[in-house]
């Protein structure tokens, strides 16, 4: 057993009818990867409509000590047949991507290819926290918002 994994966590989810009565979102044709327990922490949570940017931002700030972690805002189609739209995901050194839409982890290269991702901006944890505090929303941040935050000494 992984020392960071609390005993009985699987039982908690098994006994929760809301957990297994809905389908786990996936990207068609792309299998999630297994990651260490420290990375899984904070990856789940309650679903909210249109909360992808918040989910990615919150995950990023919960893992600021991970090497090379960064928040990514861009456009992707969610996989074959999907409609392109504004999305947020988190990239971690070592080729790991946390997708805020599906709340799953993927190999970065495979993820970017499968969803036809177009990266608009990347942010360090400090930049993302500063922008959230200045704008009072988790993104996507406009050029004007980023410029204003820079001018205000961020």
List the helices and strands and how they pair.
Blueprint: H1 9-14, H2 17-20, H3 37-40, H4 52-61, E1 70-76, E2 85-92, E3 96-99, E4 104-107, H5 108-114, E5 118-123, H6 125-135, H7 143-151
Antiparallel strand pairs: 1-2, 1-5, 2-3, 3-4
Please describe what this structure looks like.
The protein has 154 residues and is an alpha+beta fold. The chain has one domain (9-151). 33% of the residues lie in helices and 19% in strands. The chain contains seven helices and five strands; from the N terminus they run ααααββββαβαα. Strands 4-3-2-1-5 form a five-stranded antiparallel β-sheet. A hairpin with a 4-residue loop joins strand 3 (96-99) and strand 4. The longest helix has 11 residues, at 125-135. Mean pLDDT is 80; it is low at 12-21.
């Amino acid at each position: 057993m992984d020392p960071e994994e609390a005993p009985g966590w699987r039982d908690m989810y098994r006994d929760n009818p809301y957990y297994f009565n809905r389908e786990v979102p996936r990207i068609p044709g792309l299998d999630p990867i297994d990651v260490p327990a420290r990375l899984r922490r904070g990856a789940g949570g309650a679903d909210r409509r249109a909360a992808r940017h918040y989910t990615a931002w919150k995950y990023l700030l919960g893992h600021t000590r991970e090497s090379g972690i960064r928040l990514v805002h861009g456009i992707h189609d969610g996989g074959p047949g999907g409609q392109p739209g504004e999305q947020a995901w988190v990239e971690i050194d070592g080729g790991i991507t946390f997708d805020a839409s599906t709340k799953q982890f993927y190999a970065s290269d495979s993820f970017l290819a499968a969803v036809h991702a177009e990266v608009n901006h990347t942010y360090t944890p400090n930049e993302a926290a500063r922008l959230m505090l200045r704008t009072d929303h988790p993104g996507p941040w406009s050029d004007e918002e980023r410029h204003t935050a820079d001018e205000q000494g961020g």
